[in-house]
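Dissemination and training. As part of the outreach component of the grant, students in the summer workshop were shown how a complex can be specified as a set of sequence lines and then modelled as a single object. The example used during the hands-on session is reproduced here so that future cohorts can follow it. Participants entered these lines:
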Amino acid sequence: MSETPEKSIEGEIRAWAAERRLDQPGLDSWLALDGESAAVMLDLAKRLRMRTGQFRTAFEMLAELAAVDRGTIARVLARPALQRILEGPGSGPARAQAFLDEVRTVRFPRLARLRERLTEEIARLGLPAQIAVSAPSSLESDELRIEMRVRSASELDDSIDALVKNMTGLKRIVGILGGDEF
Amino acid sequence: MNFELDKVVIEEDCRASELAARVIARVAPGVPIEFVTDGRTAARPESGLADPFGAGKRRMVVMRRRSPFLMGCPAGSSEFACCGYLVMVLASNCPMDCSYCFLQEYVADNPGFQVYANYPECFDELDRLARRASGRSFRVGTGELADSLAFDRLTGLSRDLVDYFGRRDNLTLELKTKTDEIENLLGIDPRGRTIVSWTLSPERVFLSSEKRTTSPGARIDAARRVLDAGYKVGFHLDPVIAYPTAEGEYLELLDHLFSIVAPEKISFISLGGLRMTPGLRREARRRNPDDPMLCGEEVMAPDGRYRAFAPLRLGLMRALERRIAAANPAIARYLCMETASAYRRVFGAAAPGPAAIGAALTGR
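and obtained this result:
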């Protein structure tokens, strides 16, 4: 007697999970999905040759998006932007990274937009290379980090001058981090 | 509101207590009543259930409290700009079931709905506190590990509390609730020493995340009634959840509140962003897989909790703060579980110390 398609998919999922050492709660969550979503996750993992950590991250964000949409992971994965990456050219690992980046943008849309805006604002300052301005990577705090590297008194003078000249722009960035644009 | 109970368990030592007598007399017919030697065993999670925490909510355990009743607020920390709140633990767990509730993690090992029959001992603790710190004022609440009024129909605790605090000059009672269970309060004179406070959320959050609670509109109506009966009232916008249409909906909620309860009659409004430890988030999502409110743009914050990313959270809270201040700048406001830096961002001034915040909250 031949296996049913569901049994066959479950077997493949178990095999992938064993090979990649996916933990039991992760496997349980996968197997608890509706059949279509479980199958597309398997296809995703294989097609992009995902590492276990990448799979776990993708799974979590896709499940969250499905919860927000009150839909399924299969429906989330049908979005054109994600399909383009899945079916597009490039190596598996490169597409896996691109896929995760895109899912993150979809999952955190306002965060992604604000990060992009901050990147532009920081670039627009045109500060010299010895001054690095950075926001927290996930904007988890409102702290702006300004690092200055100098090797002489004149470099110090130049750097401080550059900061003073850009005070308005820096204050705008501090304001953005404190929620001025929401 | 009538919350259903699967059973009532009473510790043998408490069989003759006033509280046990009230519960036995008032519990719905048909609810089994058991007596056990040690209530702690009945408070533990039942094995073999898919949701022992949820089951615990429907199992009332009348027992003796073995620890002090008074404690510092469990949310308090030196890393936050706190309000100096003291918690009086008269019960543990809650018959309502909010998807974001910290009790899902905090009382996971003791989910039975415990009510402490030896609660009159808390009055001795309060007297000692008041004597030791004469000249200072304290705000003491019962709504941290339980809803203050959810089972008041059965326990009648509010009457004893309001009466006690009404006879103390430097103690203020806060009864915090998401119910409209106020009947017991209406016949007593609080003598200015009791604030009844409601946690408020927009309709969308109520429908999505606050199972078995009273609707926000009914909570506000109840606030109006206790205000008319001589109580002070306060409100907690906590958690503020930063979903896409949150700002408009929280502002509408505030406008509705101010149309029913005159802003000059409100003692305080607190704001607190949704925050979840990893353990709480895991458990909350496991128990509420379909609640989109648990899947917002939260990131791991420096304090080890998931919170909406800082600019989003701070911007939203500042918008709410502006609307409250526009309604009446004299309403005391504070942030719950936020840093001094966040306080400055939202209010534009340095955070006062906990005692000063606490004094401002009880002043009106």
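Chain B has a mean pLDDT of 94. Students were then asked to discuss how this feature might be tested experimentally.
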